[in-house]
Amino acid sequence: MCWKPLFIVLLSITIVSTTLAISLTDYLYPTSFSHEAYLNGTFNFNGASLDTTQIGYNVGGNAFYNLNYRSLPFSYVLSARGNLLLERSSRQNAKDQNSYSAILETRANKYWYEDEKIFGFGGLNLGYRKEFTRNQADDPYVDVTAGLGYGRYVNATVLKQAIRVSEDLLRFGVIKSALPDQVLLDLARVIDRESEFKTLYGAVEYKKYWYEEMETILQDANLLVDGSLGTMGSIRIEEVLAERIGPRYYGWEARIGGGAVLQDYNGNQGDPLATVAIDWSRPISLDLQLNNHFALKTQFVDSTTSYQSHTVTNTFQVYYELTNRIDWDNVLKAEYKKQTLSNAKDNLAVQFSSTFIFYIENQLTFNPALLINYRDNGIVDPVTDWTINGSVSYRLK
Predict the structure, then answer these.
(1) Are 102 and 125 in contact (CB under 8 A)?
(2) Residue 296: CB partners within 8 Å, gap ≥ 6?
(3) How many C-beta neighbours within 10 Å does residue 83 have?
(4) What was the pLDDT predicted at 154?
(5) Which of 242, 261, 291 is the last residue of a domain?
(6) Which of 169, 257, 264, 318 could make an SS bond with 330 (beta carbons 3.0 to 4.6 A apart)?
(7) Cα(89)–Cα(27) distance, integer angstroms
(8) Residue of 212, 187, 17, 189 lying closest to 179 (CA atoms)
(9) What's the pLDDT score for residue 133?
(10) SS3 of 170, please?
């Protein structure tokens, strides 16, 4: 497959992106909290021919939850996702099949010094699955790791929101001119304190005090046309902050550690584990975000019937905001598994996905996507396939 057209498009997007002087990397607020949760569903029906009564179907859904907390002394990440797929072939007398999986990953970083980048970390991974080829679920997977790391991430999503607020207030005549850089940074810090206002004033009443804090910043800069936000200003802020926006991070982290697989999917217990991981993120402009995750995991096995394995994974994401209502998400995932058991074959799996995210309303999106998969298990000829599908997502948080 030729990737050249994609890179040309992305380069063009970068060149014509917004020319605002401020950059998302200017946001340095040390404490941030964010979480999001989504439900996604897809389905299709098919038939082998017009003269058969056997109808094939593919019905699936997935759920996702992500929580991020970051501060100078401590950061915490929790990610949970689940998948369910029900299907039947359109071949006559084909049987129903189902598969499902659930994965929870969590990690905490404790920095040795608040103004430094060295940290210790601990992590826990849980997994549960049933594959189409099995009649029952595998044993639950559990591993724990701990180690040392270096680096920091900053969540700059709120600065993107502050810029949107500025654009909206200017368009509706609430402010005299676009907000200067320092005012944008001050406004972003207030937006970032939403959970603090909720704690102080309650889940409903907090907005009154939250918006008043934003209003004070604009009043101090003498930018409000009527001296106050008024009803229109408050409504526009509420509308903008309710819009879904792709997370904007910058920075990097490198981690090295060890641990143990308390139990794998085959029921084996106590195998030592070594891990290396590097995460990197960079907003190229206000609309274009790049993310990359690399991990190397080695599971040491002391058994004549099993084997030591090395797994390398890399996920590269290009996320672009075409408009306030349309995003374009491109992800390239690769996983290579090196197996050391005599005569065992290495495995390589690569997937490219390109998804357009259309915001039907603030919590509902339609997501047409192209997926291309390449798989090589070292036994049969490599397989490449592609799929075009559409799904609907509902945001819970």
Answers:
(1) no
(2) 275, 276, 277, 310, 311, 312
(3) 16
(4) 87
(5) 242
(6) 318
(7) 52
(8) 187
(9) 76
(10) helix
Residues of the chain with pLDDT under 70: 1-20, 30, 44-54, 90, 302-307, 340-343, 362
Return all residues near 62 (Cβ < 8 A) that are at least 6 apart.
39, 40, 81, 82, 83, 84
Last residue of a domain, one of 242, 260, 277: 242
Tell me: do 288 and 201 sit in the same domain: no
Domain contains 85: no
Q: Assess whether 253 and 339 both reside in one domain.
A: yes
Determine the residue type at 389: N
- Contact present, 308 and 340 (Cβ < 8 Å): yes
Element (H, E) at 288: strand 288-299
Q: What is the pTM of this model?
A: 0.81
Contacts of 63 by beta carbon, 8 Å cutoff, 6+ apart: 37, 38, 39, 40, 80, 81, 82
Encode burial over 39-70: b for 16+ CB neighbours within 10 A, e otherwise: ebebeeeeeeeeeeeeebeeebbbbbbbbbbb
**Amino acid letter, 205:** E
Other CB atoms closer than 10 Å to residue 185's CB: what's the count?
18
